[in-house]
Design a protein that fits this description.
By secondary structure, the protein is α/β, with parallel strands linked by helices. It is 35% helix and 18% strand.
């Protein structure tokens, strides 16, 4: 038996991209694919966006990495910009979403420690959530596929039913530190939380001295039509994890917090070798240049509405296969009546259309935020052709 040079933990498909052009990927065999997966909500500006490419090239030629032992003009500038455009007062930069969530968990626990309540360590999270693949973040989920074989997991987490405010309230005790929740569950099946649920969690946190931690790794950075999804719920978190689209494809994440929530994060309490390196900061600035430009969010919302309407018009033609559409902005999910993974593979292998499977038999539709009507038309054409040709697998 021989193991592959790349550790075989991914079920890799036959698509082998070597080049990207806008909203398309080109494989090493020359096949051209419409990319409505965006590296799982990462390539916000598509592939080869001139502003992002230029910023990375120029920074790479200037300064790529220095230690966080030194001052960071680049990090200070991007952190200030995020603070200016969000609820937060302070930012810690990471390389990934999982690291951003880890920092959020540490920030929450440290807050209560600093307040003289070291017993307040338990994070209440929710079913079907995905917070990352580290030991800490898998401990915050109840999905066996992520937990099996990695026990013992970390204590201090309790998983509750998603969107069940009564269950959340009932779980609060003297050891509770706060809630960790995705405003829109991505991996769980593109499930937006209800207004009543998120607003209720905010009220519970305020009433009990707890922290509301939002995981906006997938739903943040303009994906839903506002810079962060929670803006559409009329609430603000105390701590928030963001990543994926924030670097446009360059590895970058961040943990944002209010001054109060971050009161325990003082010198020596946290760190990262690569977090906030100048190259990542240049990528982050280039992404913000585009998405914070006047009219960009309006365009995302309008494009999302048109894509959703097109899907809703098409779905009744294939009601043996499709159940409905859900989501916000350009974070949409098509609910299937059978296995979504098999259908995603069919679209990829036979119709050169890239989407992402999710829980609850949902096909995630996560295009670059720069798509136009031509891309929507191409998507609907490929999806319709795929649905017409698809043979629903026989039930076992």
């Amino acid at each position: 038996m021989s193991i592959t040079p790349l550790m075989p933990v991914y079920p890799r498909c036959g698509v082998r991209p070597v080049r990207g052009e806008g909203c398309h990927l080109i494989g090493e065999d020359g096949q051209r694919y419409l990319d409505f997966a965006s590296g799982i909500a990462v390539n916000l500006l598509g592939h080869g966006h001139p502003a992002l490419t230029k910023a990375i090239q120029e920074q790479a030629a200037t300064l790529i990495h220095v230690s966080n032992l030194y001052g960071s003009p680049q990090g200070e500038a991007l952190a200030q910009r995020l603070v200016d455009n969000s609820f937060a007062d302070t930012v810690f930069f990471t390389n990934s979403g999982a690291e951003a969530v880890e920092c959020a968990i540490k920030t929450a626990r440290r807050y209560h420690f600093a307040n003289g309540n070291p017993q307040r360590t338990k994070i209440l999270s929710f079913s079907s959530a995905f917070h990352g693949r580290t030991l800490g973040t898998i401990s915050a989920t109840n999905q066996p596929k992520m937990r099996e074989g990695f026990e013992p997991l970390l204590p201090g987490f309790e998983v509750l039913p998603f969107d069940d405010l009564a269950a959340a309230e009932a779980a609060i005790d003297e050891t509770t530190a706060g809630f960790l929740v995705e405003p829109v569950q991505g991996e769980g099946g593109i499930k937006p939380a209800s207004q009543a649920f998120l607003q209720g969690l905010r009220r519970l946190c305020d009433a009990h001295g707890l922290l509301l931690i939002l995981d906006e790794v997938q739903c943040g950075v303009a994906r839903t039509g506002t810079l962060y999804a929670h803006e559409q719920y009329g609430i603000t978190p105390d701590i928030m994890a963001t990543a994926k689209g924030i670097g446009g494809g360059f590895p970058l994440g961040a943990c944002l917090a209010t001054e109060e929530a971050a009161k325990g994060m003082v010198i020596g309490t946290h760190g990262s070798t690569y977090g906030g390196n100048p190259l990542a900061m240049a990528a982050g600035q280039a992404v913000l240049d585009v998405i914070l430009a006047p009219g960009f969010m309006d365009q995302v919302r309008a494009t999302g509405d048109r894509l959703r309407q097109a899907l809703e018009q098409m779905i009744p033609n294939h009601d043996h296969l499709f159940e409905g559409v859900r989501g916000m902005g350009l974070m949409l999910g098509v609910k299937l009546k059978s296995d979504s993974r098999a259908f995603v593979a069919h679209l990829r292998d036979h119709h050169n259309l890239l989407t992402v499977a999710a829980g609850d038999n949902v096909v995630r539709v996560l295009p670059p935020l720069v798509i136009d009507d031509s891309h929507i038309a191409e998507f609907i054409e490929k999806l319709s052709a795929g649905a017409r040709a698809y043979q629903v697998p026989e039930a076992a």
